[in-house]
Amino acid sequence: MNRTLIPKILNIQIGKKAPVEYMSELRQKVNSHLADCLPSHFIPVDMISDETWNSHFKLFLEERAERIFDLIKHCTTDMAAEMAARYGSSAESSQVIEVPVRPRLKDLIAEGKVLVGSRT
Fold this sequence. Notes:
Elements: H1 8-14, H2 19-29, H3 34-37, H4 52-55, H5 57-75, H6 80-87, H7 105-110
């Protein structure tokens, strides 16, 4: 839950800094509108200035995880009935869906289709 897409150099620069320290720096040097976008990433806006988050980072991660999984649940299982009504029917629970599987190397060797040490 402590993942976000940021440039490598920025990640190195914030390194092991406390959340309040690097969030404040990001707002000052990189994005003056940082506070506006944090909620859409499930990050509390007060993490920019409230030093309590420095010592309660685990709580932040737990709360963020819960909110992300709630969103995933809402967009998947909670919406299944609506999606089935709109786009088709849901699969029967006993229905088996065959997924094509590429042969594994050990199976090819066991069947004699590939010889150990062969470069073909």
